[in-house]
Design brief:
Layout: H1 2-18, H2 26-43, E1 55-58, E2 62-63, H3 71-84, E3 90-93, E4 106-115, E5 120-121, E6 126-137, E7 146-155
Parallel strand pairs: 1-3, 1-4, 2-4
Antiparallel strand pairs: 4-6, 5-6, 6-7
Amino acid sequence: MLKYATILLTALLLTGCAAQPPEPDPIRRALQNLSDRAADRLMDVAEMQPPQEQVLLLAAPSVDTSLNIASEHFLENLTRAMLRVSDGPQVLDWRPAMAGDSGGHQWRLETQLKATAPRLQLSDRELLPYRLTLSLYRPDADNALWATEIEGAFDATAL
């Protein structure tokens, strides 16, 4: 009897190990997708070439409170996306004390995530349109050397 119980327990454990990992929550997946798109855009910037020789300083993002997304949560996803880039830049959190002579390989990335319209009611869900603005600066400069926008919509039921 003990032998059968051991075999059954082993089979159950192996079945549990072979099961698919749980699906990431919808908020995390949406922020991952947006952050991956941002990383892809940034890696195409001519001044950032070759990316593995650059240092990217990520400033704290500005996130519209109506999106119900914590800026720290967005920054974490953006940082992870930048770190996932193969042969990508070194990624650090930027602090105002880092301003000053930066050399030729340091860049400060500022991001703004804003709601661009009220929630859109569809038959099966609500969408919340957004615009992510990416601006690339030298750490000692006040004017952006490059900027782009990514527009889309979050599924509001996931937020």
